[in-house]
């Protein structure tokens, strides 16, 4: 399982790109390729949780231009091993 952490800037391009990105996230979730995603309460960034391996997540990020949009910065992609919850 992998988590992706994003940091957001104030560039208007980010908000313009967000609807298409969220539609893709909805599809990925329905397909079982995304467990959860959402912005931090203060909208300074977001966290995404993927069940796949690094190659699968890299492909998802490469296919979604949101991750290269001004105002969106990928802070990190890290393996995560939850001890409680699904897929533990």
From TrEMBL:
<comment type="similarity">
    <text>Belongs to the YciI family.</text>
</comment>
<dbReference type="InterPro" id="IPR011008">
    <property type="entry name" value="Dimeric_a/b-barrel"/>
</dbReference>
<feature type="domain" description="YCII-related">
    <location>
        <begin position="11"/>
        <end position="81"/>
    </location>
</feature>
<protein>
    <submittedName>
        <fullName>YciI family protein</fullName>
    </submittedName>
</protein>
<dbReference type="Pfam" id="PF03795">
    <property type="entry name" value="YCII"/>
</dbReference>
<dbReference type="InterPro" id="IPR005545">
    <property type="entry name" value="YCII"/>
</dbReference>
């Amino acid at each position: 399982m992998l988590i992706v952490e994003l940091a957001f800037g104030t560039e208007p391009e980010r908000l313009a790109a967000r609807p298409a990105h969220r539609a893709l996230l909805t599809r990925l979730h329905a397909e079982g390729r995304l467990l959860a995603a959402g912005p931090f309460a203060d909208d300074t960034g977001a966290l995404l949780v993927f069940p796949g391996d690094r190659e699968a997540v890299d492909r998802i990020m490469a296919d979604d231009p949101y991750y290269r949009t001004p105002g969106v910065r990928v802070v990190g992609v890290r393996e995560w091993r939850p001890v409680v919850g699904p897929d533990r």
